[in-house]
Write a structure and sequence with these properties.
Number of strands: 12
CATH topology of the largest domain: D-Maltodextrin-Binding Protein, domain 2
Helix content: 40-55%
Radius of gyration: 47 Å
Shape: rod-shaped
Number of helices: 12
Structural class: alpha/beta
CATH class of the largest domain: Alpha Beta
CATH architecture of the largest domain: 3-Layer(aba) Sandwich
Order of helices and strands: HEHEHEEEHEEEHEEHHHHEHHEH
Low-confidence stretches: 1-12
């Protein structure tokens, strides 16, 4: 049963409204997709910026706090020279903090308020400390008047003893040595100064003098300034030095070569067995490997500038990288010592690989979400077929050229909207063939109706007036 004019008009308006709603939904979908694309682009930029900041953090200069003793101490002087040597370093800078004592520096280090400190191997090493370099060795010298002809430490029992040094660590070490040889803990020990050394072995002087002296200072003239005379003292061999070293933590057995202290007259006159302790530059174990490696480079490549001739750190050595070392070397320092320094890619390759894998997974998840969930799908061109066919049906009812022109405009707008949607992806090609066929039908209907209206007007003009 054919629809009447009113029914066709209502159907046409319904189809037109449906097409308008469809185009409105398409526009909203396009806006939603554009916003999502912008959001994903912004997220990509944010991730790139975060990666750039991370790379900058990993390669930016690191300022290390160096806690030392007072400003007149050798440790403070070394720290200041290291600070100057690293002033232009691209990875490591030094901030020197002088404190009232080395004990205070150790406290700062233990509380993680300082990254670097210098400790002697025979003292308590703070937890989580790792070795960077051996700055100096302190040797135990035991001297007695040549006239006394003392040959061993055991022979010193009952004699007046003296120690040169103003460091409590030296006194503690000497008392531990004496205890090993059976001396009572209450044995009196006089404290004397290094400048007195040549005069301590004269008449009425001590029966023996203990002097813990750094290797950097051992070749100075304090031991025997008058080279024209024979020395009035003999250095005593620390018999059992290996047993001492095995028993005492942080103590090593060492040989003093003949003539090491004074070449002529030769002091000692023969190789001498003794013990030594080390001054160790320490850093925190939490220090990144790359920073520790750069610190080691700064120390060992500038060691000629870091020492203080005749006083401290003139023969800086790398730490032991063995697992049984008194203080374990920092892994970054061990890389440098063992000539196994890693490049940036070598050091962070695992992190980069994991990051790329995670980024790939996250990117795939986001792409899947956008493709199947969050992205508004494009409308099918075939969904507009009814609207175009309805427009052609309405064309058959047009009575004037104005009505036909309005329908042509509507048809052209519909086609333009479909083509724009196909171009920007909001309208899919599905059903485009049916839409094109419907368009051809509607255009043909408009053309036929235009011819019919034109024929009617011609007939009306040629008809004689009644």
């Amino acid at each position: 049963m054919n629809k009447g004019p009113a029914g066709r008009a209502i159907g046409g308006r319904t189809a037109t409204l449906a097409s308008q709603n469809l185009f409105g939904a398409t526009a909203r979908a396009s806006w939603s997709n554009s916003r999502q694309k912008f959001a994903f682009a912004a997220l990509t930029v944010a991730i790139a910026i975060a990666v750039a900041f991370l790379a900058r953090f990993l390669t930016a200069p690191r300022t290390l706090v160096f806690a030392t003793g007072p400003e007149n101490s050798v440790e403070y002087g070394f720290a200041r020279r290291l600070q100057a040597a690293t002033a232009q370093n691209r990875r490591v800078r030094i901030d020197v903090r002088p404190l009232e004592s080395l004990a205070a520096a150790a406290t700062w280090f233990s509380q993680a308020r300082a990254d670097l400190m210098i400790a002697r191997s025979d003292t308590k090493i703070p937890g989580r400390a790792r070795a960077v370099a051996i700055l100096d060795h302190s040797l135990l010298l035991i001297a007695a008047p040549r006239s006394a002809k003392v040959k061993s430490i055991a022979a010193l029992k009952g004699k007046r003893l003296a120690i040169i040094g103003d460091d409590a660590r030296d006194s503690a070490l000497v008392r531990d040595v004496l205890a090993f040889y059976g001396f009572p803990p209450s044995a009196p020990i006089e404290e004397r100064h290094a400048a007195e050394w040549p005069h301590l072995f004269e008449a009425n002087g001590p029966g023996a003098v203990f002097y813990i002296v750094r290797k950097s200072k051992i070749a100075t003239d304090i031991f025997w300034p008058d080279r024209a005379q024979k020395p009035n003292f003999d250095l005593i061999d620390a018999d059992g030095s290996k047993a001492l070293a095995a028993r005492m933590r942080g103590v090593d057995a060492e040989t003093i070569d003949a003539g090491l202290i004074v070449a002529s007259p030769k002091i000692p006159d023969d190789d001498l067995e003794t013990i030594s302790v080390e001054d160790i530059l320490l850093c925190h174990s939490r220090l990144p490997e790359a920073v520790a490696t750069e610190l080691a480079v700064a120390v060992f490549e500038n060691k000629d500038l870091l020492g203080e001739p005749g006083r401290y750190a003139t023969a800086i050595e790398p730490p032991s990288t063995d697992k049984d070392a008194t203080v374990l070397a920092h892994p970054g320092v061990a890389e440098y010592v063992d000539d196994d320094t890693k490049t940036f890619l070598d050091r962070y390759s695992d992190m980069i690989y994991i990051g790329m894998s995670v980024a790939s997974v996250v990117g795939s998840v986001f792409l899947g979400l956008y493709s199947t969930v969050t992205r508004a799908p494009p409308k099918r061109a075939g969904q507009l077929t009814d609207a175009v066919l309805s427009l052609g049906d309405r064309a058959t009812q047009a009575q004037t050229f104005d009505e036909i022109a309005a329908l042509e405009t509507e048809l052209n707008q519909t086609v333009a909207a479909v083509l724009a949607g196909v171009r920007d992806g909001t309208v899919a090609n599905d059903g485009f063939g049916a839409f094109r066929l419907a368009f051809d039908v509607a255009r043909e209907a408009l053309a036929l109706r235009k011819d019919a209206v034109l024929a009617q007007l011609s007939e009306a003009k040629d008809r004689p007036n009644a």
